[in-house]
Amino acid sequence: MTAPSSRAGTAVPGSSRGRAAPRWRRPAAVALAAAVAAALIYGTGPAQAATLFTDTFEDGNHNGWSSSGGSWSVTADGSQVLRQASTGADARVRTGQASWTDYTVTARVKPAGWGGAARSTGVAARAQGSGNYYYLGVRNDNLAVLGKVAGGVDTTLASAALTVGTGTWYALRLQVSGTSLTGQVDNGTVLRASDGQFGTGQVGLFGRYAAAHFDDVAVETAPGGPSPTTPPPSPTTPAPTTTPPGPTPSTPGPTGQPVPAGTADGFASVNGLGQNGTTGGAGGPVVTVNSTAAFLDYIARPGPYVIQVAGTITLPTGTSDGMHNVTSDKTIVGVGANATLSGGGLNIGLPVDDATTSPPANAVHNVIIRNLHLTGATDDLLNVQMFSHHIWIDHNEFSNGDDGAVDIKRGSDFVTVSWNNFHDHDKTLLLSHDEDAGAQDIGRLRVTYHHNYFNASDQRHPRVRFSALAHVYNNYYFENSYGVASTYDAAVLVENNYFFSVNNPGRVEFSGDLGRIVERGNILVDCNHPIETRGTVPEPSGFYSYRLDNAADLPTIVPAGAGVGKLG
C-alpha cells in the first residue's frame, strides 16, 4: 500500500484541510452531505470525531491517490470532481494511512455509466491493497450494498433496495469500528454487518465496471468497536466465497461429460503412439514403500506397478543431479496427505539425445504421478523428456525446487497436469527447453494444464515453445510475476482461468520468435496488463472431451481441491 505524499489535499491526524467550500456547489448538495455526515452516532460517550483527511479536488488534481485500473482524472469543466471514465475495468483509488483503524469515510458519488449487470460504485475502508477492503456502494440492479473484497473476490455482507440511476449524486457514509461495519446512503438507507478480516487500512473509491464522479471525500475518527476475533487469512491462501465482477466466462465448442474420478483426462486420455490413454500401473502388483531403497527399486523395474508412497522418502542428490528415472507403466501415488519425496527429483524419459528427432520404440510412456509432495530437489522436481508420452501429473504439491517444478520437453507428448498446488517456487512449468529444439518438439508437446493452483509461484505457468497445443484452462493464478508465455509459434489456448494480481497474465513473446495465444472466458483482477493474443490455435475439443467450470468460481474450487490429500 502507498501512503499519500504530502500535499494540500492530505491532512495528518487531528488536522483538517481548512479550505472554503467551492462556490459552484448548490446549497442543497452541501446540506445533504452535512446531514449525512452527522446522521448517525455509534458507540458510547460523546462523539469527539477528529478529521483525518479531506479532498474536494478543487486543486485540479488527485495527487496522493494510488490508482489500480480504470481512467482517473479531475474534470476540467469547472465542476472539479474526480472522474473515473472507464466502464471496462475494476477501477480503484486509495489514499490515507495503512495504520488507520476505526474511522468513518464519507463521499458523494454519481454513477455515469455501467459496463454490464450488477455493476457498482462507491467508497472503501480498511483497504489493505487493491484486492482487500470493505466497501459501501450503489449498484445498478437497484441495490445499496455493504460488502468486502478479499483476495480480489467480492462478498456481499448486507444489501437493501435503492433506486440507482446515472446522473444522480448519492451521499455515502461507511463507518468501520472494531468488527462493526455500518453504511448509510443519503439520509436514509442503513446497512449493518460484522466482520473481522481487516482491522486497519486506507480509504478508497471504486467504480467496478462503472464510470462515476466522486467529490467531498472526508475521513474522521470513529469510536472503537468490538475487537476482531477472526484472524485474517494467509496472504497466499485467500478464502473467496462469491462471484467477483468481471467478464462472463464463455463455454465455446462442445462440452463433454466429466471424466470419472481417478481417470486421466485432457491430452493424457487421448489414444495415440500405440497407447490407449493413460492407465499407469493398473493391472500390476500394488506395493507400499517407505524407504529410499525400496522406492528406487520399484520405479526402475520393468512392467506395470502401483507404487504407494508412505511417509517421507529422501532421494539421493549425489548422482545425475539428483534426478531418478521412472520406467513405463507406473503409478506412483502417495498414501494419505503426508507422502513426500524430498531432496531429489523424478525423471520420466530416456537419456538425452538431441540428435534423435523421432519417437523411439522404447520411449517411456504410461506414467501416473499423484498425491505426492515433491520438494527441495537440487534440480527439477519432475522432468518429462525424450519423447515420453501419456503422462498424468495430478493432485500433487510442488515447492522449493532449484530449477523447474514440472518441465516437459524434447518431443514429449500427450501429457496432463491437473489439480496441483505450486508454491514457494520460481520456475514453475516449462514446455520445451530451448529455441533450438524445434526438430524434436514441432508437432508434439500437446499438454493440458487445468485446475492448478499457482499460489504465489513466480513465473512460467507455463512458458511454451513449439507446442502443437497447450490447453490452459480453469487454473487459479494468485500473485504471480507472469502467467503464460508463448514463443516460437507455440499454440496456446488460455481459457476460463482466474488471474489475481498477476503482472503479465499472458504474453505472446517472451524471447525469440512470436508465439500464438487465443484467450476466452478469463477473469483478471488487479493485473497490470491484459492477456496478449495472436493468431489461431486448434480446438482441444477436437482431441478430447472436457467441461469448463465458471471462472468466477475458481478462487473457491481450486484451493479447496488442488494438492495432496484431496483425491476424493
TrEMBL record:
Its main location: secreted. Residues 1-49 form the signal peptide. Residues 282-505 form the Pectate lyase domain. Its EC number is 4.2.2.2. Residues 1-23, 219-283 are annotated as: Disordered. Residues 225-257 have a biased composition (Pro residues). Residues 274-283 have a biased composition (Gly residues). One of its GO terms (biological process) is polysaccharide catabolic process. It comes from the Bacteria. Keywords: Carbohydrate metabolism, Lyase, Polysaccharide degradation, Secreted, Signal. It is found in: Secreted. Belongs to the polysaccharide lyase 1 family. This is Pectate lyase. It comes from Plantactinospora soyae.
